[in-house]
Amino acid sequence: MSETTRTRHGRGARIVSCLLTTALLAACAGNGPAGEDGAGDGAAGGGERPADTARTVDPGQPVSDEHIDQLTVGIPGKVTLVDPADNMEAGLNVNQLGLEPLLRIDPEGQLQPWLATEWEQVSDTVYEYTLRDGVTFWDGTELTAEDVKYSWDHLRAPESRRATYFAAVDTIEAVDAGTVRVTLKQPDASWQYTPAMWYSVIFQKTFAEQAGDAFGQPGTLLVATGPWKFDSVNPASGMELSAYEGYWGGEPPIDRISVKSFADDNSMALALRAGEIDIAPVVSGPTGFDAAAGGNTVTTVQTCGTARMSLPTRRAPWDDVHVRRAVAHAINRDDIVAAAQGAAAGPAVYAIAPQLLQTLGTEAEVQAALEEVETYPYDLEAAEAELAQSSVPDGFSFDLTVPPASAAIAEVIAAQLGEIGIDIAVEVLPDTAWYASLREDDRPFTFSATGACTPDPDWDSLFFDTDASGEPIGLNMAQYSSPEVTALWAEGLLEQDPAQRLRIYTDLQKQVAEDVPYISLFAEGTTYASTTYDLVEYNSYFWMNLPWALNLVPK
Amino acid sequence: MTGRAILLMIGKRLVALVVLVAILSFLVFSLVHIAPGTAVDAYLGGKPATPELVQLLTERYHLDEPFFTQYWLWLKDALVFDFGESTLTTLPVTDEIGIRLGPSAFLAVYAYVLTMILGVVPGIIAALRQRKLLDRGLVAGAVVALSTPPFVMGILLLYLFAVLVPIFPAAGRGEGFFDQLWHLTLPALALALCVAAFLLRHTRASMINVLDQDYIMFARARGLSWGHVLVRYAFRNALIPVVTVSGALLAFFFAGAVFVEATFSLGGIGELLVQSAQTSDMPMIQALAILIAVLIVLSNLLADLAYVAIDPRIRFEGRSA
Questions:
Q1: Closest to B163 (Cβ–Cβ): which among A17, A274, A432?
Q2: What residue spans in chain B does CATH classification 1.10.3720.10 cover?
Q3: Quick check: B52 pLDDT over 80?
Q4: CATH superfamily entry for domain B93-278
Q5: pLDDT-based confidence at A28, cuts 50/70/90?
Q6: What are the residues whose beta carbons fall under 8 Å from the beta carbon of A9, sequence distance 6 or more?
């Protein structure tokens, strides 16, 4: 139990640091003009956009035949180092051009081959991976199981930022040159996706051993298998990559990739407008970006991240479930989505994002399971009726504490709650102060975004984290502790049968919906911007796990 | 002032610098212990506090030693420019600063030179053409520039000269002298215009004041040429208050260009300073605080030396002559 606890704890830390980064960037970009044309409005499943079409070519192959001499990529933030155990911020979006995982996750959340051709769950706790023949590192030497073992051991070492993703792992062995065996400490159904994520990428053991402490740093870099080699990294301005001609998927379609760091969305948008960058794979404030970039530049798709409001269940009057239900009924998600400046892909009502359930059953089965869960539709009469039953029938006053990037949405929430007599004052704190407030004994009434995810429903467990005695810890902002829910999260990881897991997570969602510790607001979107190229399969949030420039197609 | 007196002045300033940095180093080192949470929290930088990692950090930063021992060990490293690793990026702090130092220094000097040219020259012209159309125009222009904050000026310049008429790049810092000059022209202008406008008014007022002095009239009466009077008498005297103002400018341009750095995505020292404060990146804050203190002291020393060059009568150290 302590192991799973630690897992969630660390994930929380990482996600909050991602949130902070996004918030910082968004805050910087906050002055941007707001565009009126809802170009950032496109939710997933919109139809014919390249972003919504799946890769149909073989692993390692480019989607388009077009040859590109030079691609200039704009990213918000800096690439400070390429060590996958420690890289942060923008590095996460471009290191995958050179660093590859064993597997890939397709838009349906299913595993597909990449550096590994086969994978097998030998028992509840043992997994084996067969490596692809003919994969070579940038220096021409062959990829072996020893390299995979070394990379993963490096990523799960205690000083690694990624250690918590590997907390379930007991041992990693190279069975022979082409086979890797992973043994878990206890069954963990969410492990299956780990070898396909951006935090489990493979690099060469020999080079890493020689490099020692300088491994991954700008002057040393690393050696991996991807289609583009890291030529240089400048932590203040960007990085340079060039095609690896011996790439196992064939000669890469782009000769040189130049990555430029930008301080904020606005400056990146103007560079796109001036033709200085070809594509920005991640844009945090789509509406403002599009306006500054001259229009028709952004493509937004829905992710499995859920922005949610957290109600401090241990503080009066939030300790009264009727108050929480009243608030849930008073929220009009459409207005909140509109206030999100294009960062929201659509309303969200469930504690666990529906995409995270799609691997557990057919569409109809998942739909049937979701229909069992109460969702508190926008209904002011129902809200007033709930409030009348509560300890504060005439309403009350409270602060809604948010970081600067969320201020606009917070004002909308305050106005909506004002309709039922709840007087909300928006308190805007600097990012670090807001983050600190999440760890105080008296948790704030606040809301936050989730960020990246795996396709496993356990991902959302971090907002329900408790210690061994059932006390809320980590990112459990609502300070919600329900023995049933805690037991269900644990059971969901131990159970291997998808249908059973769907049952468990449905029971869990029903219980959470009854208690309303959180109110989901919107499905987070992710956005790229370009006037010349599109990114195929961008609707799979896992595009960032792979050398995504292979998915580039001309507009 | 004699050469010896000047050397003495420089020597005294450098001793003061050492004392200042010593006091400052103690204060910034204490930050780690004053900040909320434990010293280990300060070095964790958002990583999960696993027992193994806490152990590792405790050993690396000698956190189990007494406070003054820790300070001494830290100071010894700091003296050879080893401030540890950034908790945000895990790169050595000195590497991170080093890579930004060049462009920031280039931008600061470039903006400084532009400020001097755009401030002093029109200031003198305005003073000589007092209450004429040219004077009025220059002063009005200065009011506009003075009321425009650098980041607004930056966005305006960016839009005009990188998007509408793309003769300068919209972002980036460039490599090599001429490429940097090209990349940093708009940022330097954005930084310089506001301060130059202030300097213009300052120079104009100072110059008008000097031109009204009796010794100017006497110099003219003695038959000296107008050019000679202007350069040798009026200009040198008018420049003294201007130099006072400009002393702190270089350090300001160096560390205070954060908005302009953000507008043009330059990746400079100012941005690093703000980022390290926002993320509580202690080792970075410590190194930057010391760097900026040293720069402020040195740029003031430069300004004082400039005084001496302009007016040898100026004394700094009592009656040394």
A1: A274
A2: 93-278
A3: no
A4: MetI-like (1.10.3720.10)
A5: very low
A6: A164, A465, A473, A474, B48
Q: How far apart are CA A350 and CA A335, in angstroms?
A: 18
Taking CB atoms and an 8 Å limit, are B166 and A275 in contact across chains? yes
Beta-bridge partner residues of A261? A75
* Residue B167 identity: I
Closest chain B C-alpha to A110 CA, distance in angstroms = 30
Q: Which of residues 145-174 of B touch A (CB under 8 A)?
A: 155, 158-159, 162-163, 166, 169-173
What pLDDT does A33 receive? 32
Task: Kindly report the CATH class assigned to A301-525.
Answer: alpha beta
To which CATH superfamily is domain A32-297+531-554 assigned?
Periplasmic binding protein-like II (3.40.190.10)
User: How would you class B212 by CB atoms within 10 Å of its CB: exposed for 0-12, middle for 13-18, buried for 19 or more?
Assistant: exposed
Is pLDDT at A15 greater than 70 in this prediction?
no
**Which residues of chain A are in CATH 3.10.105.10 domains?**
301-525
Mutate to test the interface with A, among B47, B104, B263 (most CBs of A within 10 A): B47
Nearest to A285 by CA among A527, A79, A447: A527
Q: Residue A72: which H helix or E strand, with range?
A: strand A68-76
- Average pLDDT on A310-316 reads 93
Assess B100–A contact: CB distance below 8 Å, yes or no.
yes
Q: What pTM was estimated for this model as a whole?
A: 0.82
Q: Which residues pair with A554 in a beta bridge?
A: A533
Nearest CA-CA partner of A109 in A551, A550, A542: A542
Tens of pLDDT, residue by residue over B53-105, are 788 888 888 888 888 888 998 888 888 888 888 887 778 899 889 888 888 99
Q: How far apart are CA B207 and CA B204, in angstroms?
A: 5
pLDDT in the model for residue A177: 95
pLDDT band at B254 (very low <50, low <70, confident <90, very high): confident
What's the first-to-final CA gap in chain B, in angstroms?
Answer: 6
- Residue B315: the pLDDT is 64
**B45 pLDDT tier (thresholds 50, 70, 90):** low
Strands (E), A387-444: 397-402, 423-428
Of B89, B166, B280, the CB nearest to A274: B166
Question: B255-280, pLDDT tens digit by residue?
Answer: 778 888 888 888 889 888 888 887 77
Q: Which part of chain A is CATH 3.40.190.10?
A: 32-297+531-554
- Beta strand residue intervals within B37-144, DSSP E: none
Query: CB–CB of A512/A478 below 8 Å?
Result: no
Q: Give the pLDDT confidence of A467-510 residue by residue, as tens digits.
A: 888 888 888 999 999 999 999 999 999 999 999 999 999 999 99
Is residue A482 within 8 A of residue A272, CB to CB? The reply is no
